[in-house]
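Batch manifest, entry 17 of 40.
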Amino acid sequence: MSVDTVREEQAIRRMTEHLVQVFTGIHTAEHVEVVVGTARHRFDGRPVRDFIPVLIERVVRQELETAARASEETPPEAVAHASQNTTADVRSDAAAGTSPDIAGDTVDSPGIHAPENSAAPRIWTERVRSKGFLSLALAAVVVVAVVVVVTTGGQESETPAAAPPPLATVRGVIGSEKTAFFEDPQVVKAFAAKGVKVEVDPAGSRQIATSIDLGRYDFAFPSSAPAADRIQRQRHVSQKYTPFSSPMAIATFQPIADLLTKAGVVKKGAVRTFDVARYLALVAEDKRWDQLAGNKVYPVRKNILVSTTDPRTSNSAAMYLAIASYVANGNTVVHGATAEVEVLPTVSKLFLRQGYTENTTEGPFDEYLAVGMGPSPLVWIYEAQFVDAAAQGRIKPGMVLTYPSPTVLSKHTLVPLNASGDKIGRLLSTDPELQRLAAEHGFRSGDASQFAKVAADHDVPVAADLIDVVDTPSYDTLEQLLDGVAKSYG
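Output type: structure tokens
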């Protein structure tokens, strides 16, 4: 017996025990088990899937509840007539591998049928001649009538409200910039509608790929393809999903943008762009803010630097490294040991001069929103973070979004570690409601119009067409560069 089969058997056994408790006083344990067995025969020959027990429970619940409601409308003489052989009929149906023909409405899965929630009087008048109906519904009527007489002295007993089907809990580890999305009550509701409850732990994307124990999770959802590639290699997983993406961006403030426009770093247009080549030239000169001509808005004695996260743990910093290395390498993707050695002194300085850096983009961006331009006038972020903050009303007047030129597209890639994780990847990639909610949180998905509408609704100028986008180095090259920077920290 396979592991999946054992898991299915255990799930059905737990579900049966739960239903026996739910319907105590209404149906006997023996009858509940018979109905479960009958419903289960509908799925004979189908592959083992995690959702099969959930569908069986849904079918059984509706059949037991329908039978209980029918008992309130059933004439006494019909109950007496049905009591002669109903349980035997149900048992024979189960043995034959057939199911009572109560109704045929489908349940969220092609080819799978479950009873409709129709009113009992209509069931009685339209289906009383059906042996299948009598085999199941009237068997329950007899049991209910006997239990009511014995336990309540013939007085009417109330049917307890049916509990909703239990949700399957799926656990994942995600890049921190997606925390707000997964914690959104609407997202939680959308997953619940599909029968799942998603629990996530945030971490730096490079941490996810290098040091997090993935054995505790059903899926890993870093913020870049290189990190996902490493996970796939380590876990021997061929499947992956890229439900949404986000270009890298720089959050700044209007006075800083105007100052850097005069310095030739920021350029105006439909959206503001940040010239990385000109920026690297200022860094190479060790230029300070107070040395910029005409600077009266931010005359501090600090080097001009973009604030990032820790490149040793965070994907966003790795994307910053990828762009800087591309420009430092003569606008060419770095490849090979020689090119790596040549660009390392330039790119290492971008990180070492920052001092302390955090592990995830959530920290520096929250500081940007709360504190202002004092500590960090330029903050490296995902575009999605700025759009999401605007949708929440957290962007204040004077806060400005700019795009590095060139930029890279961070592809948020989900790696399923088992069947449960695979379901989350499929839902995020195909479910219209989840795709809409992803756009509400600033992510670009397959439908560009959804993202454009969200940005327009909240007055965020965004790049409609991402043209100046470059490729990241290969996974191995990027790792070599990151290791080189890490060694520079001493």
